[in-house]
Design brief:
elongated; BirA Bifunctional Protein, domain 2; alpha+beta; single chain; 4-stranded antiparallel β-sheet; about 400 residues; 6 strands; two-stranded antiparallel sheet; disordered C terminus
């Protein structure tokens, strides 16, 4: 790309990690866009472009990331009438030699697949997918390509913060919609920790992690690439301490929320049960009044049939034979059987037999002594039960 204002040329052909790019609301090339934007300014210290650098979720495939950035660029064009130039950059490899080799092998289908898989590996990259979105400070006529007035709504002290909040909210909405469509449970929230805690969406006391900066990051990568363990700086130690404390706060807060939800569920169940019982009692009272106020048997039977809250005991139906016997006895045809006198005597004799005193040395059990021919003929015979039958029958 050549800068017509200074005559300098910039070569980006060897730049690694460029995963995609595009133009919105401009028919020419990126070089023509920014040369025209430079020519539209008259002041030497004029602002030519604004830049947004949003992070892209690593959970989204590359095509979804492109659609997300392109759709957001179209939204900027529709809201402010500007021309947009965007580029998607890949994460940085921890081992630069390995990343460079994978970048040069991306020309083949298999090489491109290996490169994309390596980009999502947390052991090989920092998974920092991000985009550079540059848009002009002047609105652009989409038909003629002529630059118009400045978009002062973004520079005003009152409207500027409001517009920045709207831009952040739009990016959050589009990103979460893309994650939801992909089936991922990850979400982004652009609110501060304090705002989230006030709304009840985060625990209190969370602290933002400090940014290490390019120098500290480059030092750690250099030491890691050479095989040496990089000594932790004060800033990195502070960041690790804050990260650990935030993780503990999140864990405790999530468990507390789970207990609160369970308690609320039990309270709601008890409340619903009480309301339904009260309604049932009201209906029961109405049904009883209708039955009590019925004047004829027909009206009473109709009220009973229409009642929905009558509690009737469930009785087991009688055995038909037992019902017939009960009917006959009720009519006085048969009288209930009375125990025989002989049976009473035998029962009394058996009871007296167990009450007699015996001599353990001279006593002989009836089961062990020899039986008489009459007793032998009447001796009980034990039959083997059939398979599956655990009851014994005597014959």
């Amino acid at each position: 790309m050549t800068d017509d204002r200074t005559g300098q040329s910039y070569n980006y052909r060897r730049t690694q990690g460029l995963l995609g790019g595009g133009l919105v609301n401009w028919a020419g090339s990126a070089e023509d866009l920014w040369n025209t934007a430079e020519a539209a300014e008259k002041r030497i210290n004029a602002r030519v472009a604004r830049e947004l650098r949003p992070a892209l979720p690593a959970e989204l495939p590359l095509d979804d990331q492109r659609r997300l950035v392109h759709g957001f660029s179209c939204w900027l064009k529709d809201r402010y009438g500007v021309a947009v130039h965007y580029a998607i950059h890949a994460p940085t490899f921890r081992d630069k030699k390995s990343g460079k080799a994978l970048w040069h092998s991306r020309g083949t289908t298999q090489g491109w697949k290996d490169y994309i898989v390596a980009l999502r590996d947390p052991d090989r990259t920092n998974r920092n997918f991000h985009a550079h979105i540059l848009f002009t400070t002047r609105d652009v006529d989409p038909e003629t390509g002529v630059f118009g007035p400045k978009t002062r709504v973004l520079d005003n002290v009152k409207t500027g913060p409001e517009e920045l909040t709207a831009i952040r909210a739009e990016w959050e909405k589009r990103t979460n919609a893309a994650l939801r469509k992909r089936g991922s449970r990850a979400r982004i929230d652009l609110r501060s920790y304090a705002t989230m805690a006030e709304a009840g969406d985060a625990p209190e006391g969370l602290v933002a992690q400090p940014h290490l900066g390019p120098r500290e990051t480059a030092r750690v990568r250099k030491m890691t690439g050479s095989g040496d363990e990089a000594p932790a700086s004060r800033r990195s130690e502070k960041r690790d301490h804050i990260r650990t404390d935030n993780a503990e706060r999140w864990s405790c807060w999530m468990r507390l929320r789970a207990l609160q939800r369970e308690q609320a569920r039990l309270e709601d169940s008890a409340r619903v049960a009480a309301e339904r019982e009260q309604e049932r009692r009201k209906r029961a009272e109405v049904d009883r009044q209708r039955i009590a106020e019925a004047k004829t048997d027909t009206e009473r039977q109709m009220a009973i049939d229409e009642a929905t809250t009558l509690e009737q005991p469930r009785m087991r139906p009688l055995d038909p034979y037992a019902a017939a016997i009960a009917t006959v006895m009720a009519e006085g045809v048969l009288a209930p059987e009375t125990p025989d006198v002989a049976d009473k005597d035998s029962d009394k004799k058996a009871a007296n037999e167990f009450e007699q005193e015996i001599d353990p040395e001279t006593f002989t059990s009836p089961d062990l002594r020899e039986s008489t021919p009459e007793e032998a003929r009447s001796k009980p015979v034990i039959r083997k039960p059939q398979r599956g039958n655990l009851q014994r029958s005597r014959g």
